[in-house]
Design goal:
58 residues, 2 helices, membrane, transmembrane helix, transmembrane
């Protein structure tokens, strides 16, 4: 049996790090915005999104 080892190039490591940082930033931003937004604004945003995606809601 042959063991296959894989090494990551510095460019690939940089891309992965960039993707993780972007995802973390977006996630924290969503939590921050939704945590401080009024409930009515969140409800209206979800309601408008359902209409724009053609989902029936009432």
């Amino acid at each position: 049996m042959v063991a296959i080892t894989r090494t990551l190039s510095p460019a690939l490591v940089g891309e992965r790090l960039s993707a993780v940082l972007l995802a973390a930033t977006l996630g924290v931003g969503l939590l921050f915005v939704s945590g401080f937004a009024p409930v009515v604004a969140l409800h209206n945003a979800a309601h408008d999104w359902r209409h724009s995606a053609n989902f029936p809601c009432h």
